[in-house]
Structure formats: C-alpha cells, structure tokens
Design a protein that fits this description.
Layout lengths: L1 H4 L5 H13 L7 H11 L9 H14 L4 E3 L5 E3 L13 H13 L12 H8 L24 H9 L4 E6 L5 E14 L2 E8 L4 E6 L3 E6 L13 H4 L14 E8 L6 H7 L7 E2 L6 E8 L3 H8 L6 E5 L4 H5 L2
Antiparallel strand pairs: 1-2, 3-4, 3-7, 4-5, 5-6, 8-10, 8-11, 9-10
Helix pairs in contact: 2-3, 2-4
Length: 324
C-alpha cells in the first residue's frame, strides 16, 4: 500500500506514512527504531533522518492527521488506539455505497482479524449515513475452523518465521514437521496454509482447522523460495491441490439431466478457465480441460450425475471419479 502512494507524496509525507505503518502494527518503538524504519524505506541507511525531522513528523501526525501518538517517559512511541489514515470527511454518498456493499462482500470473512472492523470503520467515517445494501454476496454456511490461527500465520509468512507444527491427518495419527509458510489460501469454505516442508523438501498444504503451531522461530529464519508465485502455482488446478507435474489434457462428454441443465450450467459456470465446449451432438457436448486431475475436479464431474457423463479421457481416471 505504501509503495502505491509514494509517487504522490512529499519527502515528509513518505516518512509519515512509514512511521504510521510501523506504529499501526502495535507495540512501542524508540526514536532509533523509528529512524531505522524510515531510513530503510528509502534504502539510505546513512543517518539522514534527524531529530528535527522526527519532531516535525510527530507534530504532523498529531496536529494534522489527529493521530493518537503517545510517548512514555522512557521515550517509547506508540498509538494508544487503532488509527486509520482514511479521511474522516469528504466522502461522497457514492463512496459510502461502495464501502457498504464491500462490507457485505466481506461478510463471510467477518471472523478474520483484518476484516472484522470494516463495518465499524464505515460507521466511524460517516455515522449518520443511511445504509442501503444493493448487492447480496454468498456467505460461508459454517464458521471457518482454525480461524484463530489466521493472524499469527499471516505475520509468520510476512516475517519469514519457520514453524514447528502438529497436523492432524484424516484417519491417522498427528504428524510433527517443520515448515516454511508462504501463503494463505481459501477454498471450499476452508482456509489452508501453503508451505515448503523442510523435512520432506517439498510443497505441502495444511488446513488451518487441523493445524497447531508448536513453535515459531525467530524472524527471517528462512528465505522465501524464488519459484513460488501464487498467480501461477494454481494455474492448472481445480481447487487447492497443487502439482509441479505437467497438466493433463482431460475431456469427457456430458448431457443434461432430467431436471438439471448440465450443459447450460457448464457454459455459464466453467469448471476451469481452460474449459472448452464442443457443439452439441446427439444431446451431448464434449468438455475439454487442461488441468491437474485431482479430487476437486472429480467432485465437479460427479456432481453432473453418472448417468449424464461418458467417454472420460484419459480413461484411467474414470474409476477414481465414480468410486463410492
């Protein structure tokens, strides 16, 4: 977020934004720690941030931005309460409508620490605005399991902290292993931690509702793997399962069910972004995908009805799809 605003800010504006970004995390910081944060942000590390600059920035935060900046007798600086740099006035009604419908969209994430205060923020910005919800978003049918781990795992990823975890497998004994957390991903109303498993030297995914952190190591206790890119890692996946193997050219033929219009459903709700549909012939269309064929794909096909699907290719997957 800070990088987005920098081109539009003065030198003092950039410094103030860096100080705010540090203080909003919580905790108390010395002038030296704040100076280091500011200097590291511009890559100088050469002592250019003077006491005079710091005093000017404190004054700007307190008097211009009305920030709750406090200090202890020992010279530690902190925010006494949560504080946002969003403007307290000047929002147009159209802006409020957008924010309120965004709040509705975030409703399924209400228990997450980074989303839970959105409605409170809207009321704080413009408390007398009459809410008019226009868009209805799908919510989670059940409360997310393991959500209490979300914020700690977020910061473990951000700070490159190695984790010792205990993980409860379905139908098995808990396993103890060491992981390097890289990403949090949601799928099917469940949150997952995507990691490099240090013991197995391989990528592994763990559901938050079956994960327990036994020990968190110090900051920067591992290096992020350069090959990890969340924009490409699941390119050929249907769901959460990831593979580094080459994707498969997968196809099947499908017809409408007695009551469910499978063909129209697939036209409007593709199984995967690679999906291609042939012209209808004798009541069937051919569905072609370039994917990693795993259980999430099999569930999608199974939902179309066994009597409505034929000629699955490669044929070796047919038994896996229709297994009881």
């Amino acid at each position: 977020m800070i990088e987005y605003f920098k081109p539009f800010l003065s030198k003092q504006g950039i410094r103030v934004l860096e100080i705010h970004n540090l203080l909003r995390r919580g905790g108390k910081y010395t002038h030296i720690e704040i100076r280091r944060c500011v200097e590291e942000s511009d890559g100088s590390n050469n002592g250019n941030y003077s006491i005079r600059n710091f005093n000017e920035d404190k004054k700007f935060l307190r008097e211009i931005l009305d920030a709750p900046l406090m200090s202890t007798p020992q010279g530690l600086y902190y925010y006494k309460e949560k504080f946002s740099l969003l403007p307290k006035q000047g929002l147009m009604d159209q802006d409020m409508e957008i924010l309120e419908n965004l709040s509705s969209a975030a409703g399924k994430y209400r228990d997450l620490p980074f989303f839970s205060e959105l409605e409170l923020l809207i009321k704080k910005i413009k408390p007398h605005h009459k809410k008019k919800e226009i868009i209805g978003f799908e919510g989670a049918p059940v409360q997310y399991g393991g959500i209490e781990h979300f914020e700690d795992l977020f910061w473990s990823i951000h700070q490159n902290r190695e984790l010792e975890i205990e993980y409860q497998q379905f139908g098995g004994e808990p396993i103890h292993t060491t992981v390097h957390p890289h990403y949090l991903k949601e799928y099917g109303h469940r949150w997952y931690l995507f990691t490099w498993n240090k013991d197995l030297e391989a990528w592994r995914t763990y559901a938050l509702d079956r994960l327990k952190v036994v020990e968190e190591k110090e900051e920067d206790s591992f290096l992020k793997r350069e090959e990890f890119d969340p924009q490409t890692f699941w390119k050929h996946s249907v769901g959460i399962i990831f593979s580094q193997e080459e994707p498969v050219n997968f196809s099947f033929e499908v017809k409408d069910g007695t009551t469910i219009k499978n063909i129209d459903y697939l036209r409007t709700m593709p199984i995967h972004h690679s999906q291609k549909l042939s012209e209808e012939k004798n009541g069937y269309v051919k569905v072609e995908l370039t994917v990693h064929p795993f259980v999430e794909l099999f569930r999608e096909i199974r939902a179309l009805g066994q009597n409505n699907v034929k000629n699955i290719q490669p044929k070796k997957y047919e038994k896996l799809i229709w297994e009881e």
